[in-house]
Amino acid sequence: MIRNWLGGVLLMICCVSNVFAAGPDCSRPFTLGLHDHGLLYSLDTDSGIDKDFADELIRRSGCQIKLSLMSRARIWKLIESGALDFSLSGIANDERNQYASFAWYFSNKYYLLVRKDAGIHDVAEFEQDDHAQLGVIRSFRYSDSANQLVDKLTAENRISQAGGLEPLYQALILRHIQGMIIEPFDYPALEEKKIRDVTTIIEFNDPSVPHGLIMSKKALPEAERKKWQALVDEMRADGTVRRIFEKYFRPELADAMVNFKASP
């Protein structure tokens, strides 16, 4: 009888140990970079989708994660060097895949925001108008067609770069640029800054682009990256990601952004 009881206790201990072993290794503190970008994160309010997501990662993992605000360009450099463990809402390309892994948690489309007085009605017209200047955030990449437009205009010296959205909004209002690339997180700012009255939105004919937790390959071993991936997958599966997005978007838009097929 005692032997059976001891066997049961040992089995429970092993199961509990395996559960904890399956989670991320919290033996050291981690770092995570946020960038000021519309509804993803606002420095003014210290709130946003990515802040909520980071808080949930901290709660679920039980790890100490220091959050810092920095430009997107700096985030990518630090991720590549291994000086930064994580960032959020990142998209992949061939170059980034060399030094980062991604755990997807939402997907969205990109749009071209153009001044009405530019007389431009589609992406092709913007591309062909030699006087049209496009504003972009330094180190940002977008969907395929948007990236092609940026690359072509860069070669023609028709790109104005900034560290964030605010300088681009100002440049658009002052007619220093005729357009900029936006995503759904930027919509509230368009209303607040009265930009919507003088602009029109043109859609790129591209599918939605997955965004995710960015993990530095230099900072995190593959086995640990898989554990963080599993944590993000769990947050998607149990509805946590959807609930976060529903705080900031209408239910139908939130649903469209979080219900997507993640790539392997």
Automatic annotation (TrEMBL):
UniProt entry keywords in alphabetical sequence: Signal
InterPro entries associated with the record: Solute-binding_3/MltF_N (IPR001638)
Signal peptide limits: 1-21
Pfam family for this entry, one: SBP_bac_3
Occurrences of domain Solute-binding protein family 3/N-terminal (ranges): 47-250
Keyword Signal: yes
Stretches assigned to coiled coil: none
Name this polypeptide is given: Periplasmic component of amino acid ABC-type transporter/signal transduction system
